[in-house]
Amino acid sequence: MRVAKFTTPLAITAFLMVVLFGALQAQPDAIQRDSLEVATDSLSPMPAVAPLVKPVNPSAEDTPNDAGNSMDIAWELGSDDAARVTKYQVMRSESPDGPYEVVGETTQGQSKFTDNTVAAGVDYYYRIVAVSDPLGDGVTNFASAESDIIGPAVSTGQWFNTRRLNVLLWTLVLSGSVIFYIYRAKGGGNLYIRKIAGIDAIDEAIGRATEMGRKVFYVPGINDMDDVQTLASIAILGRVARLAAESDTYLEVPVSKSLVLITARETVKEAYSKVGRPDSFREEQVHYVTDDQFGYAAAIDGMVVRQKPATMIYMGAFYAESLILAETGNAAGAIQIAGTAQPAQLPFFVAACDYTLIGEELFAASAYLAREPMLLGSLKGQDIGKALFLASIVLGTILQLLGLDFQWLLRVS
Amino acid sequence: MKREIPLIITFVAGCVFVIQYFIPHWPFNEFEQVFTDWFSIVQAFAIWLGALSLLKFSMLKIQRRQKDWYMSVIIIVGFAVMVAYGAYDGFVGMNANPAYSFRDPGTHFDWLYQNIYTPLTSTMFALLAFFVASASYRAFRARNFQATLLLIAGILVMIGRVPVGDLITQFLPESYRAANLADWIMNPLNATGQRAIMIGIALGTVSTSLRIILGIERSHLEG
């Protein structure tokens, strides 16, 4: 009985272990079978995908007004573009028989592409492929349709950019007007030039510095010599340096670009020589500070606060540092004259300076200060150009109000 | 010849730039890039002149014990530290495997740049807020009729640019609410004035360029 008492639970336990072991052994087979069934399913034929409508009327034309290194490709969208097309592939070959390579893609709904990788004078053949690839795996419900082959298309360079014809016309009109008045002035013609208060004030500002025995600071902006504003500024600096040399007032020019340093130094040196005071010029009058925008502003602010100049002249290209400089000069009690062609900075200068040359006045300043007939003639020509511009604006407004179409004038190409 | 050669170079370069703007065909289409490359090369060499000028100016100040000469000591020390660490990091980075640049994150130069140079620059930029406040205070004082108009326009634009502007003008018709009023001031009124200035600037640029190309404006060459 004692044996039976222990044998029965042992037998039950052994039986359960065998069943459990068998079940565990059987499980991988079941998993394997399931995966096999899935694999078998995936090998079964996909449901048929309806063919795509191919892009129609494809065209390849040389891009106008370029150097001959691009081609404009266009096509008409198929009827299933919105419903099924994922993208269009533009394929190119140098032979109609291929091989074709993908040179670009556009998204659904786009029917234009510019191929910027062509060489001038080479025959090219194009094919547009509409692709439907909803899952992006290139398999599921994938379909594509190729357009007819187009070509040969050849890209050529043009000798004139017709889109810029209107710019050329206006440039010729303005240049003609400037040159006409330059020659008229050369011939002794009397030219009236309106007074520009900001430029007239330069004499007064330098005189004030002379009386007070303090410095004049000239800040030529933070752009390099490839900016026309800096060139205009250097031209004004030449006149300012002459006035300063004549009145024996110390002129200091901190600059932020090395090329400006060289040009400004030569200009100031020449100005001192012109008025017969070459010995008064010292190289350290024109010195480099830093290329960094705010480092430059900080350095000038420091000098202004410590040295308290009588006059600050800002001429050239300025950005966010304009107000930092002008407000510090204002706080130091200097008379301040500014000029820039940066429209966004003009309000800051107007608020903080005594006189401001607005836009074109910066470019007129050198001629105005020089009072040379030829330079004044160019100013007159510039004003005539401006009058013609105004007339064209008024004419355009009238035509627009009358409902007459004059847009073709703007679409010369 | 000292003046003729720069004038000839200016004339040729100016004409080339004008021509390449209208003629896209080779070789004109490549001139702009060629001149830009030349300018970059000249600029790169010229940076030494700037650096030498800065050092000379500062050393003269120290030597002469001019007022605030200690500022020049700071300039020279700052300059020397940045150049020394830049050169050291560059040398070590060049010989490291993999090689790295002196400007890469983790270098001494980068640490100085991120922790000294950048905060100083940001501080200067931040000062602008205070300067705007002080300049606005002066500009917006209603001293005369024009200044009063400016004041009113400024207030309307500021109110129109914040959400509370529309909230306090809810009772008005749509087009008279603060945001729309601000847009009206900024677009037809402000933009018109800005465009007039820009047309003047464009004409001035053409005229000045013409004077320089033709050699009529020579003050940048002869003072």
Give the structural class of chain A. Answer: alpha/beta
Count of alpha and pi helical runs of chain A: 11
What is the H/E order of chain A? HEEHEEEEEEHHEHEHEHEHEHEHH
Q: Write down the overall geometry of chain A.
A: elongated
Helix content of chain B: over 70%
Overall helicity of chain A: 40-55%
- Mean of residue pLDDT values of chain A: 85
The arrangement of helices and strands of chain B along the chain is: HHHHHHHH
Rg of chain A computed from alpha carbons, rounded to a whole number of angstroms: 39 Å
The largest contact between protein chains, plus residue counts on each side, is: A-B, 94 and 62 residues
- Give, in spatial order, the strands making up the sheet with the most strands of chain A: 11-10-9-12-13-14
Structural class of chain B: mainly alpha
In short:
With 413 residues, chain A is of the alpha/beta class. Chain A has eleven helices and 14 strands. Chain A has helices spanning 2-43, 81-84, 165-186, 197-212, 228-246, 258-274, 293-307, 321-331, 346-352, 360-370, 373-401; strands at 56-62, 71-76, 87-93, 101-107, 112-115, 123-132, 143-146, 150-154, 216-219, 251-255, 286-288, 311-315, 335-340, 355-358.
